[in-house]
Amino acid sequence: MEAASRLAVQEFRLPVEAWVKILYELAATFHAWPRNRFKIIELVTPLYYARIADFVHSTWDLSSEEAEQVVEQQAQIFEDTKDYLLKVWEEKSKLPENHSGEWQLYD
């Protein structure tokens, strides 16, 4: 994240595969945390803007139909990665209630 923050706008990328895992991690964490859940929303907001900027940059010169194909491809990645969501959901649901929520990507 620190390295990405130093990139010029034209150089920044947030690949959809990374975005999917970030969202799945955050969804599972939101579900598992009994308190301070809305801190997660504060965390995801700048990442959301970054993902939107990457999408706009990567589809700027495409027609509406071509951009829609990109959206469909991204939706397929969400579907294809559902097993990852189920895994992190289960793992984070096992954490003790007072767990501080250390980040761990499950691959």
Write the layout of secondary structure elements.
Blueprint: H1 2-5, H2 16-32, H3 38-59, H4 64-80, H5 82-93
Helix pairs in contact: 2-3, 2-5
Strand content is: under 5%
Low-confidence stretches: none
Main pleated sheet: none
State the helicity in percent bands: 55-70%
Helices and strands, in order, run as HHHHH
Instruction: Give the helix/strand class.
Output: mainly alpha
Give a count of the beta strands, DSSP E runs of length 2 or more.
0
How many helices in DSSP terms? Answer: 5
Outline type = globular
Rg (CA only): 16 Å
Distance between the terminal alpha carbons, to the nearest Å?
20 Å
Could you explain how this protein is built, in words?
By secondary structure, this protein is mainly alpha-helical. It has a domain at 35-95. It has helices at residues 2-5, 16-32, 38-59, 64-80, 82-93. Helix 2 runs antiparallel to helix 3 and helix 2 runs parallel beside helix 5. It contains five helices and no strands. It starts with a helix and ends in a 14-residue tail after the last helix.
TL;DR?
This protein is mainly α.
Keywords for this entry:
globular, 5 helices, mainly alpha, single chain, 107 residues
